[in-house]
Sequence to fold (118 residues):
Amino acid sequence: MRATLPLLLALLAGPALAGDASAPAADSRPTLSRVDYQCAAGIRLSVAYPPPELADAVPIRVIWQGKRYRLVPAASASGARYASRQLEWCSRGDEGMLSRYRGKALARDCRPLADGSR
Fold:
């Protein structure tokens, strides 16, 4: 039994010590670019966007009223649309609007702040 324990430990640790190439990277999530928006009625919110080449596949992050929301890409007649069970973010060009999912508008006429970038 004593002889098999070191062998068993060596076999279990082998791939980890050898740098197993098939193991996924520790953090393979794309880097998101944050844009801060100023909306009508003095409302502010932030949206973190994925790189353009991943925009149709990677969710955005919306920070509104101190809470974070994850919205996935959704079908849109024009512009971009992202939705969750609670919220919907629609944008065209530099303007955007936040609303309850298929409901009341929460933040209209949202425009990037001067120091925000997309």
